[in-house]
Amino acid sequence: MKRLLTIRGLSFSYDGRRKILDGVNLDLHAGESLAIMGYSGSGKTTLLKIIAGLLYPYEGIVEVTADRGGIGYIPQNVGLVKNLTALQNVLHGSLGRVGVLAGMVSKFPAEEVEKAYRLLGEMGLADVADRKAGLLSGGERQRVAVARSLMQSPSILLADEFVSDLDIINAIEVMTLTNKICKRNNIALLMTMHDVQLVNKFADRVAVLKDGRITADMPAGQIDVNTLATILTGGTMR
């Protein structure tokens, strides 16, 4: 598999004293699904923001060799515009291609509109395309956020706890649809998650962040609640 992301010796601090990330090494390949687990405050969100180019400066190497639309990013708060429709929110994922002006005047090329409708359909949202985001359910909003990121045609999709606010049924539905599209299009999926069952169901690998370092990197099927607890309380597994 083609390696799309290479991280070596990555360190980061918000205040110049305490390191949130401390010597992180990580690889991600095309079509691979990697879950990052760890305590709250362990640096998971910070790691994703650095990969997405939202945080700088840092020490170390973060090399992205993704082609197509580069990196798609789904923040934990989803970030939809509530007074815009589901379709309009998804179309905003194409602004990198069509320009900000298109979004301001809501004039998108026909092929972009067609693609947005197709993605909404693939996420099971064809019937809510014209409904404002503020009127959608939590699961529907999450699926719109996924479709918006996929609108970029990314090689890497970053997802920060994007199903953490959903009940298990909706979480599985969102993850199933997202994982299916990513596998079909050879998109690498890097997600932060806290639910071991979801990790084992949808990830190929799991990496555990503790005290700013990757203390475990293994096939997802090898992780369970007891193993995770051992790692987070002092054990090291690779």
Automatic annotation (TrEMBL):
Residues 5-236 form the ABC transporter domain. Keywords: ATP-binding, Nucleotide-binding, Transport. It comes from the Archaea. GO terms for molecular function: ATP binding; ATP hydrolysis activity. This is ATP-binding cassette domain-containing protein. Pfam families: ABC_tran (PF00005). SUPFAM superfamilies: P-loop containing nucleoside triphosphate hydrolases (SSF52540). PROSITE patterns: ABC_TRANSPORTER_1 (PS00211), ABC_TRANSPORTER_2 (PS50893).
